[in-house]
Amino acid sequence: MTSDEQDRIARGYLAFVVEAAPTSPLYARLAEEVARSDDVLAFLAGLPVGKRQPNLLFAAVQFLHGAPEDGDQLRSLVADDAERLRATMLGRATQTNEPARCGALLPVLGLLEGPLALIEVGSSAGLCLYPDRYGYSYDGVAVGPSDGLRIDVATSGGVPVPSEVPTVVARIGIDLNPLDPSDPDDRAWLRALVWPGPHAEARLQRLDAAARVAAREPATALTGDLLTRLPDALALVPPGCTPVVLHTAVLPYLPSDAREAFVEQVRGLPVRWIAQEGPGVVPGTGERAPSGWGPYFVVSLDGRPVARSAPHGGWLEWLSGPLAASAG
């Protein structure tokens, strides 16, 4: 491993410290330790470039051993279980699936003429394909089923809270490696992707509840690249409904040329397009953060920003002005 390569990996982990600190102080501390550890940096350098990120390393460790208590334990686990850790990181991907993001999607879905056929790109286990199966509370205003999973959302800016959930007649997910919500191993991986911290228990409870919903009513899962499989997904849409292409926190994982090709592709299709991504990741939705994520997500409809949201759910701010108004 060259010194320059080691420095690049270390800088990436130090940048992650800032991202992780507000929600997972443990992961922030572990990232600092990795940036100072020649042994862990050497382990990471032996992986392909796309398999070195903090999310994947820490999830793989948590999947195999639980979250390490400190940097010393992390270094020991990497040294003592390097082969299994390497195999897990090569065979798995960061496929966080947060059903609470549906709290930001639902008001936008409520603007569309139904019934709806949902096509999620980068779907993971497809837990965001069930917005009609979850219950919601927008500042205490209840929407949707009263039993099962409830998603609480604090709002500002005049969110157009729908009076009911939409009618969904098709659920189609596209992913390079779709996860099966009924498979215990895949569910364990999804749980390992949840960052330890003050909000972890609530997120795990939501994840388990949503996985039970998805296991009872399996979505259609297409394996492959979103660019090549999107036409296949559209071919599965029943007649007489509105096809909706949606994605949450997916585009930063794509190379820039693939991201641009996807945006051009979806804009040319007879679909509605809902994105929940970091600022600027969808062109025209703000100034892009260096990491592609930012402190909040921008919710857009057909490329026009309509709201800002918490990355993992919890609050939604509706935007005013001509762009948001035209989306309505």
List keywords for this structure.
2 domains, single chain, 12 helices, disordered C terminus, alpha/beta, 40% helix
Descriptive overview:
The chain is of the alpha/beta class. The protein has an eleven-stranded mixed beta sheet, with helices on both faces. It has helices spanning 3-20, 25-36, 38-45, 54-65, 71-80, 82-91, 102-109, 184-192, 200-216, 226-235, 256-267, 322-327, and strands at 116-121, 135-138, 141-143, 150-156, 168-175, 220-223, 242-248, 272-277, 297-301, 304-309, 315-318.
Radius of gyration of CA atoms, rounded to a whole number: 20 Å
How many strands, what sense, and barrel or not for the largest sheet? 11 strands, mixed
Q: What value does the average pLDDT take?
A: 92
| Straight-line distance between termini | 53 Å
Strand order of the largest sheet: 3-2-4-11-10-9-8-7-1-5-6
What is the fold's blueprint, element by element?
Blueprint: H1 3-20, H2 25-36, H3 38-45, H4 54-65, H5 71-80, H6 82-91, H7 102-109, E1 116-121, E2 135-138, E3 141-143, E4 150-156, E5 168-175, H8 184-192, H9 200-216, E6 220-223, H10 226-235, E7 242-248, H11 256-267, E8 272-277, E9 297-301, E10 304-309, E11 315-318, H12 322-327
Parallel strand pairs: 1-5, 1-7, 2-4, 4-11, 5-6, 7-8
Antiparallel strand pairs: 2-3, 8-9, 9-10, 10-11
